[in-house]
Amino acid sequence: MQLAKWISRPKFGVENLNPLSVVQMFLVVFWSMAAVADSAAPSMSPTNIFAPASTPAESIFGLSLFVLAVTGAIFVVVFILLAYAVVKFRKSAGDDGREPPQVYGSNQVELAWTVIPVLIVVALFMATARVIATVQKVSVPNKAIAVTAIGHQFWWEYRYPGLGVVTANELHVPVSDPGHPTPTFIKLLSADTDHSFWVPRLAGKTDLIPNHPNSMWIDPQETGVYLGQCAQYCGTQHAKMLLRIYVQSRDDFDRWIQAQRQPVSVSAAASQGQRIFETTACINCHTVAGTPANGRFGPDLTHLMSRDTIAAGAASNTAENLRLWILNPNAIKPGSLMPAMELNDQDLDALTAYLETLR
Amino acid sequence: MSTDAIAIPRTELAARPIVARLHEWVTTVDHKRLGILYIIYALVFLVIGGIEATVIRIQLIRPHNDFVSPQVFNRMFTMHGTTMIFFVVMPVLFGFANYLVPLMIGARDMAFPRLNAFSFWMTAFGGLLLYFSLVGANGLYGAGNAPDVGWFAYAPLTSRTFSVGHSTDFWTLALLVSGFGSIGTAINIIATILCMRCPGMTLAKMPLFAWLNLVMAGLVILAVSPLTAAQIMLLVDRYLGGHFFDTQAGGSAVMWMHFFWIFGHPEVYVLILPAFAFASEIIPVFSRKPIFGYSVMVGATVAIGFISMSVWAHHMFTVGMGANVNTFFVISTMAIAVPTGIKIFNWLATMWGGKIEFKTPMLFCIAFLFQFLAAGLTGVMLGVAPFNWQLGNSYFVIAHFHYVIVGGILFALFGAFYYWFPKMSGKMYSETLGKLHFWLFLIGFHLTFDFMHIPGLLGMPRRIYTYEPGRGWDTWNLIVTIGVFFQAAGILVFLGNLLWSNFRGEAAGSDPWDAWTLEWSTNSPPPEYNFYTIPAVESRRPLWDLKHPDDPDSKYE
Fold this sequence. Notes:
The structure holds two protein chains of two kinds.
Chain A: H1 2-7, H2 13-16, H3 19-39, H4 55-88, H5 107-136, E1 145-152, E2 155-160, E3 165-168, E4 170-174, E5 184-190, E6 195-197, E7 206-208, E8 214-218, E9 224-229, E10 242-248, H6 250-261, H7 271-279, H8 282-285, E11 309-310, E12 315-316, H9 319-327, H10 329-332, H11 345-355
Helix pairs in contact in A: 3-4, 4-5, 7-11, 9-11
Chain B: H1 18-27, H2 31-59, H3 70-104, H4 113-136, H5 167-195, H6 208-239, H7 253-287, H8 294-307, H9 323-335, H10 337-351, H11 360-383, H12 385-391, H13 395-425, H14 431-451, H15 453-457, H16 474-504, H17 542-547
Helix pairs in contact in B: 2-3, 2-4, 2-16, 3-4, 3-5, 3-7, 4-5, 5-6, 6-7, 6-8, 7-10, 7-11, 7-13, 8-10, 10-11, 11-13, 11-14, 13-14, 14-16
């Protein structure tokens, strides 16, 4: 009996497993992952991490497929072993009531399932280290566009230091032709709490932390609008701190820059609205370049009407929404830091009319 | 030889007035009563935290929902996380450790019974303090509000500039107070295991349960201390003009992250090691085989303990730590997968060649194995720093750690409830209700947390009170919310089963599972002094030796 205990080793199915079938399983998993990812184009979601359109996101995508294949294969193999054990070794209905052979362990088996995971870990680590270097250890090329993104509760400020442009919430960058790359390098700062810049199709996220400047880069290869949003909890309206990146052809981008540099031209018809703007609390927080308004706490409004959205993407930029936003910001974005301006209908209309001239 | 031979007949006591009985519970220093107090306290908070989760999920059932305001939503996720980690899972695990460690190592109580009571009441008052914020946080009674800084309370959102009123103070003080309780209990567990083992029980002959709790307690001391220090620093910042984390005066937000996660990641292992402990006791008994590779299991546990102290910054891959630091934390994080994998393989090998009996505790442990496997593998994905740049702070992370905490820890914990309920109450639970609970909770868990991975892959960040339509997240969020109601139903069946069985269940007897560790050698429930005579053991399975005198384990160890 004692001898039996020592000798009887569990019948390990691992030994009976054909190595070829393991490889097949691995391939099936890899192939189905790739199929999923392939079909998962942006049509599934405009923020799909498996629809990359810029080098950092693509490097991550490639690595993620490898990681998914390896972990998927491990999952399938161990799942089958567990399921097999649970089904095969269940107590049968006509059990004789005797205890099964008592097995205490086996050093060889322990060694096997220590060494194999170690090897897998080493492989995963090597692949990972390479992608970290690809994305993080890059030097800034001459042709790069430099942008400073500043996170505020609950909106984004964008400054183009070399180009003399300041805007908010909608970042414009040129498309980057792989032959002549014009990547955009973004310096990330925060004016208040922590935020995180995440546009899944262009790059992984990087946090904006006060007193801790960060940077990231993108080189989008197709024009279009790329969406994302703040990914680090930053306060009440963290949810409506949306990111919109407009990737434009080089010509369109240059034209946009040119337009943003123009000083504001106010028509006489809007002078009443301008007076209201400049004599109420508006100017404490907002800048309209070329006028006395030079507040920095809120978004720069010099070219407000060139934007598709207001309130960091929370509403589309229509006269109706603008009016509602000035009247009661909480109706669009409860907890936003813009106060309700308490204007009468007449003043509200005049002010809205003025803002609509800021093109 | 029957094990009932050493059990003591119970004497019937006359019913005493309820005030006298309550007084006994409040003033008790008995490890079993304190264990039960911990467990009941945690169950109450489990219901509260569950209601908070339900509010969160109803709000997210469709885009632009307005079930609650953003302010309320932010308080809900802060309270849900804080409650579940600090006032549900930790206390309930301490409860089981308190109850079972002395019984398993043949001791009459914990090493320091008064410290034990002190620690429990500190934890209990910590929880009350957290919830007192609802009435007291804004200075006026009834005008208060719960904390809304998130359960990891990143600076500088916690500074007085961004968090006015006292809600953050209640959060800080609650964790400070309960942290002292946790450290007290950890010291007690370590002292008990090292000093109070019965004759013959060398460290190598302890049940794995004791080993895992020993490492857990060591981790509590190492992990909770920095958290406690950070809370004190935060209070200094808020009230004494300190600038540790006050970025507007040159403080460092990143330093808070380091302090928090040097606590936060070992904390995960503080929570999972006791779950491993339950599985390591339950799986062998219901497979009718000893644990496979005992010494390797111990080694893997100690390895997890050490490695878990060097992985914390994998929570900070997006903070901008630089390529080299990121690379270091990738390898340390992946390294921990190896001892964890070894554990899964050893449980598998324990079942292999056994005679598995699908009683409720075993069902929960089997589900634990499958789910923990998946949770570990998504953990490896998150450990791949570049992949983490996409997945971090998304719903994928939420799905991952709920797979660990619910799919792993809570499932093992439910197994433990059913396994030791007969010992604690003396009554057998209803197997039918137990299985109903299992299936309801299994369905609910998978509906909620399997599908929760997908919106994360599609770019949905965590902690948003609402989301835009047209992102492809709607359907998944709907399914996730539906799952919550299955889980809630499962919890109600579970609580009903405990209550009904406690009052109406059949007598369980001292050893209903034909098990092998010392707690099954005494009465159910055990008398105040646990053992009539202090047992002496010769192997890891003393009751196996008793039941099989012809072929005892002690011959092979």
